[in-house]
Design brief:
The protein has about 290 residues and is an alpha+beta fold. The chain contains seven helices and 15 strands.
C-alpha cells in the first residue's frame, strides 16, 4: 500500500481547494492565505505574479500581448535555461518565448490552461538545412525527420531543421534547474525521440535522461505539440498551503512538501464521538488520567 507521504500533496491541495470553494477562486478577506499560484492550471488565478522581461540573455518574447506573467520560479527557470543555452552555443538565434499567463491569471485567448502562472510556451530552436542557426519561424510543426515546412504562416518558403543540440541543452537546463520544479514538458513524441536519442548518443547521465523522459509527454487532450514545448512547473512546496493545486504528478526528485501529521486512531474516534454524542460527551472520555498522574 502506498505510504501516507505520497498522498500529502493531494491532501494539502484538497484542504486548499475546500477553502477556495467556500470563498471563490481568488484571495478574499475571508481567505487571505490564498496567495501566489491558486487552483489548477486550467482553472485558477495568480497573485504576486512576476513579469518576464521582453528580452534577456538568450531569449526574446514572441508577442507583445501582455501574457508574460508567471510564478517567480517559472520566470527564473526560463531566463536561466535560455541564458545557459546561449552561453553553451554562442552566436545562435535566441529562444523565442510564447505566452505565459496574464498578470492576474485566468483565461487567456487560445489557451485552455496558462491560468495560474505555471505554464510557458517555448518555441523550438531551428537551423537551416545546411546547419546554420536561424530565427524561429514561429509555430511551425516539425516532423519525425526533424524538418518543418515553411508556409503561409511564416511568410517564407522552404524548410528548417530542428536544432536538436540546443533543444537538448534547453531540456537539460530546465530539468536540472533549482527554480523550475518541472512537472511536464509537453512535446510531440517523435520530437522527444530525436532529443532523447541525441542525449544518449552524447553519453549524458542516464539518470538525467530518465528525468527528462519522465517529464516529456505528448498531451492527449490537445495538439501533439510538434511546434513548441509547453513547460509546466509544479507547485512550490509552500504553495500547497496557499492554494496551489495539481496539474500532474509531484515527482519524487522534487523538493519535499510540508507533511500533514496524521491523527491517532484514538483522536479520530473521539472526534467522531464528539459529533455523534450530545453535549460533547466524548470529550470527557479523553481525560484518562487524574491530576495526580500528570
Amino acid at each position: 500500500m502506498p505510504s501516507r507521504a505520497l498522498f500529502t500533496p493531494f491532501l494539502l491541495g484538497l484542504v486548499a481547494l475546500c477553502c477556495a470553494a467556500c470563498v471563490g477562486a481568488s484571495p478574499t478577506p475571508l481567505a487571505p492565505a490564498l496567495r501566489g499560484s491558486i487552483g489548477v492550471p486550467h482553472h485558477g488565478v495568480i497573485t504576486d505574479a512576476v513579469e518576464l522581461p521582453r528580452q534577456g540573455e538568450g531569449y526574446r518574447l514572441l508577442r507583445s500581448n501582455g501574457v508574460r506573467w508567471g510564478t517567480a520560479g517559472l520566470v527564473a527557470a526560463v531566463q536561466r535555461a535560455a541564458a545557459e543555452v546561449a552561453r553553451a552555443r554562442p552566436g545562435g538565434e535566441p529562444l523565442f518565448v510564447g505566452d505565459l499567463s496574464a498578470r492576474h491569471g485566468g483565461a487567456t485567448r487560445g489557451h485552455r490552461s496558462h491560468r495560474t502562472g505555471r505554464d510557458a510556451d517555448l518555441l523550438l530552436y531551428a537551423l537551416t538545412p545546411d546547419g546554420r542557426s536561424v530565427r524561429s519561424p514561429g509555430f511551425v510543426e516539425f516532423g519525425p525527420d526533424g524538418l518543418a515546412r515553411l508556409g503561409d504562416s511564416s511568410g517564407a518558403d522552404g524548410y528548417v531543421r530542428l536544432d536538436v543540440e540546443r533543444e537538448w541543452l534547453l531540456v537539460k537546463s530546465l530539468v536540472r534547474s533549482p527554480d523550475a520544479h518541472v512537472q511536464w514538458l509537453f512535446l510531440a513524441r517523435w520530437i522527444e525521440a530525436l532529443i532523447i536519442e541525441y542525449a544518449r548518443a552524447l553519453g549524458e547521465d542516464p539518470e538525467l535522461i530518465w528525468y527528462a523522459e519522465s517529464v516529456l509527454l505528448q498531451p492527449g487532450d490537445s495538439t501533439a505539440h510538434a511546434d513548441h514545448i509547453h513547460l509546466r512547473v509544479a507547485c512550490a512546496p509552500d504553495d500547497f498551503l496557499s492554494g496551489c493545486l495539481g496539474g500532474g504528478p509531484y515527482w519524487p526528485w522534487l523538493p519535499a512538501v510540508p507533511q500533514l501529521v496524521a491523527p491517532s486512531d484514538d483522536d479520530l474516534a473521539a472526534a467522531l464521538l464528539d459529533d455523534l454524542l450530545p453535549g460533547g460527551a466524548a470529550a470527557g472520555s479523553r481525560v484518562a488520567a487524574p491530576d495526580s498522574a500528570l
